[in-house]
Amino acid sequence: MSLSGKTAVITGSNSGIGLGIATELAKSGANVILNSFTNRDEDHALAESLSRDHGITARYIAADLSDGAAARQLIADAGACDILVNNAGIQHVAPITEFPPEKWDQIISIMLNAPFHTTAAALPMMRSAGWGRVINVASAHGLTASPFKSAYVTAKHGVVGMTKVVALETAEEAITANAICPGYVLTPLVEAQIPETMKEYGMDRETALREVILARQPSRTFTTIEQVGGIAVFLCTESAAQITGTTISSDGGWTAL
Ligand code: NAD
User: Fold this and answer.
1) Which class is domain 7-184+223-250?
2) Where in the chain is the domain with CATH 3.40.50.720?
3) What pLDDT, in 10s, does the model give residues 232-248?
4) Cα dihedral: 15, 94, 69, 182 (round 10)
5) How remote is the CA of residue 141 from the centroid of ligand 1, in Å?
6) Is the full-model pTM beyond 0.85?
7) How far is the CA of 61 from the centre of ligand 1 (A)?
């Protein structure tokens, strides 16, 4: 499948799953726009290396997606958006009674409001191009819950709902909207949870990974960023043209339990 000539905007793509998706799309010939809020030299260097390695055009655009206007501006600055990947995300773990309201607002802004703004800004571009793909990186937590992750689970369930609405609103056009629902992927977002888990359970790293972090993932194996990227590429193929409004799980059996 060649995505040559298509432009993909991947939010939160200087790291983890977003970078994995950007890399797989670039390998398939798409031009890519990387994004995060950090705007460091190495963010721009990442775009340069993707461009060099895959012979595509790549740019890094900084935007803090907790700000709705900045999310819309990201799409405007991209200039084209055939493939929109809403991926940026953060986590905070606390019982609901102790959940800091500002953390709640930040998580909902980045993970639920931003996909609304980017989608609203990108759909007119897809419509004028006559083709488009909206790919939302949800989670197994978009389909099921865990304690202490109220904002995250709420945002992910919300984005799954929005995916269905966008699919219906574009159903008669060559545009699809789907959500990918990974289980655990070993990225900085998960890495940050390991030391506390080891301490809390008095376990070494390998035991904490297997017995606590991967306890809900029956395969006891992390999903990889390349696998999630491959699913995004598949969603851009002609084989996936009638796949819309749905979720694709890559969770080692988590949601089969
Ligand atoms: P990560 O920490 O490696 O990447 C998160 C990305 O979001 C980074 O690029 C970061 O810069 C960006 N980001 C954070 N706040 C931002 C803001 N205000 N504005 C712009 N960008 C911002 O984490 P990841 O694990 O790769 O997570 C990516 C997505 O995948 C998230 O939506 C996450 O919920 C989802 N997800 C992760 C897992 C997992 O196990 N890692 C599982 C399922 C779903």
Assistant:
1) alpha beta
2) 7-184+223-250
3) 999 999 999 999 999 99
4) 40
5) 14
6) yes
7) 16
